[in-house]
Design goal:
Rossmann fold; 210 residues; two-stranded antiparallel sheet; alpha/beta
Length: 210
């Protein structure tokens, strides 16, 4: 009998049917392990907030009927994972893996964004540019990953060649928390698409699933 559900939380301007979640979904299905990947473009991508994403994750975890839940958070999904755990402290969630997590904001100049009120972003799931309101930036600043209180084991996998979310953020975060294990993937880029087998091996070992 399966006692765990795996939930994958996708990154910014992405969706639940990208290459990583699709690949993982097939792997877990072959093992008979429940796998869920909610759409975190909430309420819509244009009005996206971290707060709404956190509540969407809470709903997804609450819907699980297994004894345990394991979370996999990719990029912004990793950031959301941290703050979901910090706010809700769910008893069901016993481990989490973060893939190239954005522990800090990943954009620089936002003056024009603030003045105009929105900015165009290419959305990979929709395969087109979409507007994103400035409220996303304002809400993002409410959360500080280095002020989170999480007592479950966390595994971070981060590529050393990540130019979108540099691995230094993960190194600093792991150094600040004794329950965090960091594995740097030499030469790996942000998407980690060339490292799926390495990720799978790490997940299988960390989650102790068949």
């Amino acid at each position: 009998m399966t006692t765990a559900t795996v939930i994958y939380l996708h990154g910014f301007a992405s969706g639940p049917n990208g290459r990583k979640p699709t690949w993982l979904r097939e792997r877990y299905a072959a093992l008979g392990i429940p796998f869920r990947a909610p759409d975190l473009n909430v309420p819509t991508f244009e009005t996206l907030t971290v707060s709404a994403m956190i509540e969407r994750v809470a709903e997804e975890v609450a819907a699980c009927t297994t004894e345990q839940v394991y979370l996999i958070g990719s990029s912004l999904g990793g950031y959301v994972t941290l703050h979901y755990l910090n706010q809700h402290h769910p008893a069901q969630v016993t481990k989490a893996c973060l893939l190239a997590p954005a522990v800090r904001k990943a954009w620089d100049d936002e003056e024009d964004w603030q003045e105009i009120g929105w900015m165009p972003v290419y959305h990979f799931a929709y395969q087109e540019h979409r507007k994103l309101h400035y409220g996303y930036a304002e809400d993002f600043r409410r959360y500080d990953s280095f002020q989170t209180h999480i007592d479950i084991p966390l595994l971070i996998l981060h590529g050393t060649a990540d130019t979108i979310v540099p691995c230094q953020g993960s190194e600093e975060f792991a150094a600040a928390y004794p329950n965090v294990e960091l594995r740097l993937l030499e030469g790996a880029k942000h998407e980690l698409l060339e490292d799926l087998e390495t990720i799978w091996s790490a997940l299988t070992e960390f989650f102790t699933l068949p």
